[in-house]
Amino acid sequence: MGDVLTLESVTPDNYDACVSLEVHPEQAGFVAPNVDSLARAYVWPDGEARLVCLDGTPVGFVLFHPIDEKAPERGHSIVRFMIDQRFQGRGLGRRALAAALDWIAEHQRVDTVQLSVEPDNVKALAFYRAAGFTETGEVDEGELVLRRTLR
Question: Which GO terms describe its molecular function (predicted)?
Fold first, then answer.
């Protein structure tokens, strides 16, 4: 088998591995540390944290949340998304994003996915645009809002 990418729940058994994942130093200003993201998932009732694993090895992290808690049918957000620096450059980001979109479609049953990106994060903007996300013209806390339709 091999090369299987999955999104796993963060548990006490994999917590340390999750919080030890880090992006390249030049990306650190664009992505919050996973420990911060896990804290947000804990206090957001509808937050869903997932560890991205390749053949059982943690390689990344994603945090989901409804776009609007009062109207979850509006869509779902990818609030945090990262691949550890040791695993970048192997196409895992594209695969993990595809898995995240599949997870939203399966578990949330919505058509709209939203995320936001720092305007200076040129690589991330190109990455998300290549995955079918388009800018909405909205800005959220200084970040550009992008959306994509799943179906």
Answer: acyltransferase activity, transferring groups other than amino-acyl groups
